[in-house]
Amino acid sequence: MTVGFFMPFLIVAAVCWPLFVALLTVWRYFARPGGHFANTWRQPLFAACWMSAPVPAIIAYAVGEGQVFMSWLMMGACWETGGVRGPFLGFTAMLWLLAGIYAHGYMARKTGNTSGPPLDAEYRLFRFAVLWPLALAGNLLLIVAADIPGFYAGYALMTFSAYVLVIHDETEDARRGGAAYIMMAVLGESLVIGGLLIGAGSAETIMLSELSQWIAESPMGWVAATLLWLGFGVKAGVAGLHAWLPMAHPVAPTPASAVLSGAMIKAGLAGWIWILPAGTLSVPGYAAMGAGLAGAYGAVLYGVFSRNPKVVLAYSSVSQMGMITSIFGLVLVDPSLRPAFSPVLVFFAAHHGLSKGALFLGAGITGKKTGLPDAVLWIAAALPALSLAGVAGSGLIAKWAVKTHLYETSHAFFSFALTLSGAGTALLMARALFLQWRNREQPDAGDASRVPLSMTAGWLLCVFAAMAMPWWFFVPGGIFSLPPVSELPGLLWPGAAGTAIAAVAFWAASTVPFAKRLAARMGDPAPGDLWRVYARASGGIVFCLSAIIALGIQAEARLNRPVEAAMAFLSGLHNRMAGIEPFFRVHAGVLMAVTAMLLAFLFYLDP
Amino acid sequence: MAVINAWMPLLVLFTSLFAAPAIFMLSEERWVARTAINMTAAVIKLALVAGMVLGVYLGVHYEYRFTVVPGVAFILRADALGVMFAGLSSLLWLFTTIYAVGYLEGSPNRSRFFGFFSLCVSATLGIAFAGNLFTFVLFYELLTLSTYPLVVHRGTDRALAAGRRYLQYTLSGGVVLLLGVVMLHATAGDTVFGERIARSGLSSGNEPLLIGIFVLLIAGLGVKAAMVPLHGWLPQAMVAPAPVSALLHAVAVVKAGAFGIVRVVYDVYGIDLAYRLGLLDALAIAASLTILYGSVRALSQTEIKRRLAFSTVSQVSYIMLGIAMFHPMGAVAGLAHLIHQGLMKITLFFCAGNYAETLGVHHVAELDGIGRRMPATSIAFTVAAFSMIGVPPAAGFISKWYLGMGAVGSGMHWIIAVLVASSLLNAAYFLPLVYRIWFGTHQGEWPCEQEMGFLETSAWLLWPPVATAVFSLAAGLMAGLRFSPVHWAELIAFREYLP
Fold this sequence. Notes:
The complex is a heterodimer.
Chain A: H1 3-31, H2 37-42, H3 44-51, H4 55-63, E1 67-70, E2 77-80, H5 85-113, H6 118-144, H7 148-166, H8 172-203, H9 208-217, H10 221-236, H11 244-248, H12 254-264, H13 266-275, H14 282-303, H15 309-333, H16 338-363, H17 374-388, H18 393-407, H19 412-440, H20 453-467, H21 469-472, H22 488-511, H23 513-521, H24 531-586, H25 588-605
Antiparallel strand pairs in A: 1-2
Chain B: H1 2-25, H2 31-58, E1 62-69, E2 72-78, H3 80-103, H4 110-129, H5 133-151, H6 157-188, H7 197-200, H8 207-224, H9 233-237, H10 242-250, H11 253-269, H12 271-276, H13 279-299, H14 304-323, H15 328-359, H16 370-373, H17 375-389, H18 395-409, H19 414-439, H20 459-477, H21 485-497
Antiparallel strand pairs in B: 1-2
Helix pairs in contact in B: 1-2, 1-4, 2-3, 3-4, 3-10, 3-15, 3-20, 4-5, 5-6, 5-11, 6-8, 8-11, 10-15, 11-14, 13-14, 13-19, 14-15, 15-17, 15-18, 15-20, 15-21, 17-19, 17-20, 18-19, 18-20
């Protein structure tokens, strides 16, 4: 029997196993109510089962390509792992697996440590334990689904489930971040469904590939394409639509931040790659290039001043997604780049996903007691940062791949701008590591216990997976290798420049009196830069809406008035008729006689 | 076989029509006998209707008719559209009966309630099986009269006021409808459903008259279907007991109006004629306004059931929007939504009733943290709310999808904007409820907590919403199966309307 025989089952299992894990968790919680879930959580068998949720997806990626049709599912489903879908599935599931291992220890420790009613802590643990695999299932489904309803179902399942992960801690910041997240997410979903309905309705199809073809061929395609680009842009954190991201990603529990910033953020990119065709969309393409570069630089300029390492990392996600956005914009403008750049984009996304995941997981562990020697701890924390800055590991390879392909095009300025943004990344990475280093000296009083082994293991494995990507991660159609030594100076200078700027800034802030005062005076800028502007604008919209509602209520009252007047008239008539009644009673005989004569007369007229 | 085929519609009608007097005659205390009659009638009816669904699928013709006066016939028959509505109402009647038994536990006047309850369902099935406008109007008015005692069941001032408002609206609507029917009868003779006016050759030269009659018919039916500005009774009528609200909003009254509009557009006028007269555009605009208005009004309601009522105003017009598109996909959307909306809305009302009965929670602000006290009910509520918003894979998404396909196919692209705006508004008024249910923190006592068995609430109250929530999820998830609502809607659209 061939591998192909098993592939449909593997693909179905990839999506359904996490759903089953979620169901199992619900069952275990309600089967024994009243304070046993924390114990269930620690049981090895349950823990293994819970952590294994993404495993079938990884196996599906490793085994090969396949396809499965299910005509009974919604409007007919088609799930497949061909082309770049396979590697997309691979890195997403890998990050979820490692973050899940980390999450198990993290949540166990958290549930043990929190003050307050133990049932509250259990309930939160349960909520997390159910929604984590659900968000995972959505994320995997949107990657494997080749049909539009399935893709959108996965997208929505992931979006709404992840809200619960964002808001988990229920602090003031978490609620604010969650609100920003859900509002922007619902807005993004509306844009997406609008674009999908227009496209699918015009193309009369349920397949993503045919939708893409329609957009390429139809003169009206740009309407759907623009809606979809914007809708997915919300998820991908395109500049202008990104404000929720630095508010929501850092407030989630650390493992959830890792998958939010590493895996789920890529759902936007997946939507772009699956649907938007290259070549005919030059206007959105140039807009994407502009917005991408604006995000890549703007996020650095704002994020570098934050004092929370997780916020710095979230801004770095906005910056990195800006680079990906701008490269994708270039592909939209220049169709000849598509074959070469699709694998590069996926490799870049995978590299950023795993490195950013490792960085987030590291940010939650460096201030705590791990039992590791300090040198190992900080080297492991710094490695993914170096990789992301493009000076080592997968980052260097990704950068080299982008650069080689860009050399072949005539976009010299764009190429330079992209290279230079590497300096910004280095700056952000230095800032994040510096903040972690500083926080290390003041660990929280309640967190003195050693972190569970699963946290350390999940983190170190993630660092390893990120650094060793070239050896286990394959994208069909792309060859990724380390650059030759002669090319190194051209690739390393932005990282070096960024590090140098960081070093100078650090030196200045700690020695030069003026800079010292400036640094002290400059507060912690609130994450979510533009959010306040949006909030004010939407306040205006709400005001207008409530004015309309008030008018509607008035109009409704006015509409009822004639009805009531008519009713009053009828009941008045009724009373008057009651007054006539005695007359009829008294003169019944006369009336009957008159009627009889009238009838006789009528008969006489019409024989 | 032929005899059975003629009597089947009558038989279905009689199961609940005979149950009604039997229940009226029982004394208050005979709980077991009353429940047994109710349940038996509901199960028999469901089985009979299921048989008819299969029969219609296989092409059996069910028809019963007699001539009342020459030129006016009483016709009961089952076509695909009729059994669809009959199937929905008999399925949901079963759940509502179970729910009502638990809900009215220990309250006065139960015999009266269940008697009229049965009458109400007979009337609904009569509407479903009515074969011409005359028969339709007959049962339509019977429905008005049999639901009034249910609306005012509690006898409070608020309930009586709501009942008065209900009668004012529906009886006036009935008069307008009757006027339209009589005028149509005078113009075109007995209008048997399916023998469209377009085929009679009457349509040329009579356009203004036909447009006038159409407006009268839609205005009369629009009262029950709660189309703006004729919706005023519906939010007030939500003071009725929860099972009544559930029935009113999901199956009986509101749906009867919508179903009537479907009949008028498809079976009396015919979609071609309606399109040629320019009536579809007007209907689509009226439906869109209703959708947006209802959603906007729902935003500011603080009472749970009132918010749900305005949501009904909005959601039922999806049906009209679907049939107002000159496209088979629109027809599929509208017809499937007839069932989808019923499943979703009945779930929401059941859940709201559970919150009110078990914990005394009536207002949105009191929902904080209720998910932990009543998880199964809350999961059902959440599923139905997401379905209403149109989140896949639930049933509401399927409706929205086909509506979108129909809108683009018929060239009415602006409807996409209406759909997106409506989804946003639905999210805006449902998500805060879901948020409070799962993330709010409950403090102190519940307003009026009652101990009801070892589950979160009485089993009679718990299982119906869970079952309907599962149905509304399954209707979307397994839309590709043979007897799913969408599949049946496709059967109707392609078999009967667009030959």
